[in-house]
Amino acid sequence: MDDGMETTKLLRHEEEEEDEGDLKRRIWIESKKIWRVALPSLISRVSAFGTIVVTQSFIGHVSEIDLAGYALVQTLSVRFINGILLGMSSATETLCGQSFGAGQHHMMGIHLQRSWIVDLITLTILLPILIFGTQIYKLVGEEESIANSGGYISLWFIPFVYNYVFSLTIQMYLQAQLKNMIIAWLSGFQFAIHIPLSLLFVYKLNMGVEGAMLSLLMSSWFVVIGEFIYIFGGWCPNSWKGFTVAAFKDLVPVVKLSISSGVMLCLELWYYAVLVLLAGYMENAEVAISAFSICQNINSWEFMISLGFLGAGCVRVSNELGRGNAKVVTFSIKVLLGTSTVIGVFFFVLCLVFRKNISYLFTNDERVADTVSDLSLLLSFSILLNSIYPVLSGVAIGAGMQTTVAIVNLVCFYLIGIPLGALLGYLTTLQVKGIWIGMIGGVLTQTIAVVYMIWRTDWDNEVKKASERLTRFYLKSDEISELISN
């Protein structure tokens, strides 16, 4: 009897070891798939945003007023425009990812061209935000000197923002087919040439703010030109069949999906912009805006890593939904969240360790440095939350659930976060800290809500929805060839 019990225990132990070994193998395989998308994506995003942060650093050592002006433009106007374009472009992630998973590779080039049409029209409509920057900043109550500086710098950003139309959409198009390593290389070179260009124009040629902005323009368009060469040069033969009038067909459904995506991501990105605006109404607005924007840029720079996992989440979920693998989707989400959270904890600790020292990369003003130091604990918690909710947003984009998440973002960010931040910032002695606490409150409630939404999702039903979506946009390969030839 005892021998039988021992044998049973031994067999059970061996089965548990096999299950554990199988789980480890599955996690390893899934992790490789995730990092294949996330690593190039985060390198490109960190490098691209790094050029913006480096530009702010150079401008900050030229003039404190221009530092505040640049922060105003970059955080309000450019983030506003980028939010719309990123959101509108994320429809490309959904459609290209699901098309690739379903084997409809020839449709990906059409989705890309449609996104260019939609984004170019959208950006052109938004240009007055940059053209009339000074008037807008004065209208919302910013100090005249900061508004004038911001209005001048915003004109320099006009040719810069047009690179977003192509760089955002091409990255989504390439990462959906697991070819985004080229973007990582181009972005790495972009960051590498941006620093010496900035040193040359700002210090060697003594061009000041103009030199910093010129180096930003040159390095940003370097990536776009490289992407064009890669696509048009024949490295995407299955997905790029040339320019076609098919891109102008069925634009309305694409616009609808783009608007849903746009609202979802814009509500996230604009949230931080509104908080910077609130900081501008406080005493000593120059210090408040500069300190808050430095912390925001550090937070946003680390957020670029999370956007890499957002892209990975979108690609993995959309690919597997296109293939009809609901179980793989749920497993991938768990591995994504686990990996991203570990990275978030690492940067949480790093931010606490360096605290005040970070600010001296951007400014020599002791008042700004002290304010940044006071915000470092809150900044650390924001960075930790960055590791969770962007991944969930990527999952939502991959599944085409943008509209639902947009509603969640509206409630959590604008009905909870901003009012809470305004109350704590203006009705207590917390000042800028109060605004940031409100921001964290909004992000935390959004994270909890989206976690619950993803947990309750019926992924088998999402597979059916993905199939219906692909059928709606499908064109046969020979039909595309005929349209191109005509």
Automatic annotation (TrEMBL):
Record keyword Membrane present: yes
Keywords for this protein: Membrane, Transmembrane, Transmembrane helix
Residue stretches spanning the membrane: 116-137, 149-170, 182-203, 215-236, 257-281, 331-355, 375-399, 406-428, 434-455
Subcellular location: Membrane
Membrane topology (UniProt): Multi-pass membrane protein
InterPro entries registered for this protein in UniProt: MATE_euk, MATE_fam
GO molecular function: antiporter activity; xenobiotic transmembrane transporter activity
Residues spanning the signal sequence: none
Keyword flag Transmembrane: yes
CDD domains assigned: MATE_eukaryotic
Single biological process term from Gene Ontology: xenobiotic detoxification by transmembrane export across the plasma membrane
Pfam families attached to this UniProt entry: MatE
Taxonomy, superkingdom: Eukaryota
Principal cellular location given in the protein's record: membrane
GO CC terms of this entry: membrane
Homology family: Belongs to the multi antimicrobial extrusion (MATE) (TC 2.A.66.1) family.
Name by which UniProt lists this protein: Protein DETOXIFICATION
The organism of origin for this protein: Deinandra increscens subsp. villosa
